[in-house]
Write the structure tokens for this entry.
Amino acid sequence: MNRYMTKNNSLYYVLPNFKETVTILVFPLVSRSAGLQDLFEACTVYKLEKDAVLDEFDHLKHPEKGTPFGEIGFFLKRQVVDEIRSLTGNRKE
């Protein structure tokens, strides 16, 4: 599975190392001037079956299946945060 793609004016980012499910973070790409905290506050998390194909996933078809990032206790490695920042064009901390 690809690690990320852009679709529907959003960045779809697959978290690595999940064995039973696929976890996708969906970031809206509406404002590149927003800070990193704003980016994660707008993020929605989706859990899919482990054999899901990222290219076929569309968060607009089932928005009710997503959970706001802030409601889930994720801790992301700095490398992942830096990659997301780079992919979204976000330069603010």
